[in-house]
Specification:
Strand order of the largest sheet: 3-2-1-8-7-6-5-4
Oligomer: single chain
Radius of gyration: 29 Å
Low-confidence stretches: none
Largest sheet: 8 strands, parallel
Number of strands: 10
Mean pLDDT: 95
Strand content: 15-25%
Length: 333
């Protein structure tokens, strides 16, 4: 998708169905340094049947006894409201994106100008929809919560059959919040090895450490839920990150990213300068006359800014001095 890690502030449904909160989330995500603010777009009647119960975490976080249908209907924003949000994002300079949960919303978002398609974990194995995503010929970010490696394989193949050529796979554990012992961050590397595609991490843990660790392991995309206040009413706020912490997350990711380097082991410019006075070199242990043989009797190793490096000891031993050396003078062949 890009050279540096793409950081997505996952607003999701943390607008609570209020466009003004949605716009404020965009503002705060921009201030926090996120590259993207991402929502979720759906028509409730096309997404879910009326009697599906809430997930346990949803019930715990909302404190409401209601169906998922009723909950999602309360949180649904209209297409017209998303047009306003997209325009606002363009004006403040943050990328707008959203997960489409059914084909009609995908069509709408593509027409609106999303830069990539985000497939949520709930659509793993949804072959017909994934193929349809592929026909849009946009980059696809595939979340893989609640799945096995075989499920991911089916999903990637469906995207490719539809025509997708740019796919990033996000490791994810679907639990809000996710306990650290359930993260299984090494599975991100398993996905990379299995499918030879760029990988990333969709984080549902509390805090910043796991997401930063994912970048150190090679994540090209980090997605983390974002809220104005973790104490707000709603299913995802409790597992989300507030603006001040998200800003620190971005800072931590950029520090790790900068520190990873190229992987080529060589001296930096600063090390080259410092090595001139720190590196140990071969020097005269005592006065040496021309014609003397170098041995451990007359040479030794000390820090010095002149002389053969200590690693040349075997090459120097037994050679004949070409000129006079005073004590501590560097030996140069």
């Amino acid at each position: 998708m890009r050279d540096r890690c793409l950081i997505i502030a996952e607003a999701g449904v943390n607008h609570n169905g209020d466009i003004n909160l949605a716009l404020e989330l965009c503002n705060e995500a921009k201030k926090s340094g996120a590259d993207v603010i991402k929502f979720q777009t759906w028509k409730t009647e096309s997404l879910i049947t009326r009697n599906v119960k809430q997930a346990e975490y949803q019930k715990n976080n909302t404190g409401k006894e209601e169906s998922q249908f009723d909950m999602l209907k309360r949180l649904e924003l209209s297409y017209e409201e998303y047009k306003i949000i997209k325009k606002h994002c363009d004006e403040i300079g943050i990328v707008f994106a959203s997960t489409a949960d059914e084909p009609e919303s995908l069509d709408f978002l593509v027409d609106l100008g999303i830069p990539f398609i985000k497939s949520g974990s709930g659509d793993i194995g949804n072959v017909s929809f994934l193929k349809y995503m592929g026909t849009k010929r946009l980059p696809v970010i595939l979340s893989t919560g609640m799945s096995t490696l075989a499920d991911v394989d089916i999903s990637i193949n469906a995207l490719k059959e539809g025509g997708a050529t740019d796919i990033t796979v996000l490791h994810c554990t679907t639990n809000y919040p996710c306990p650290y012992e359930d993260v299984n961050l090494k599975a991100m590397l398993t996905l990379q090895d299995a499918f030879h595609l760029p990988v990333g991490y969709s984080d549902h843990t509390i805090g910043r450490d796991v997401a930063v660790a994912a970048v150190a392991l090679g994540a090209r995309i980090i997605e983390k839920h974002f809220t104005l206040d973790r104490n707000m009413e709603g299913p995802d706020h409790a597992a989300s990150t507030e603006p001040s912490d998200f800003k620190q997350l971005v800072k931590g990711i950029r520090v790790v990213e900068a520190s990873l380097g190229t992987g080529l082991k060589k001296l930096t410019v600063a090390e080259t300068r410092i090595s001139q006075v720190i590196t140990k070199r071969i020097v005269a242990k005592k006065a040496i006359k021309p014609g003397d043989y170098f041995s451990d009797k007359n040479i030794c190793v000390k820090r010095n800014n002149v002389g053969e490096r200590a690693c040349e000891w075997e090459r120097v031993m037994g050679r004949v001095a070409a000129h006079t050396y005073s004590i501590d003078e560097g030996i140069v062949l």
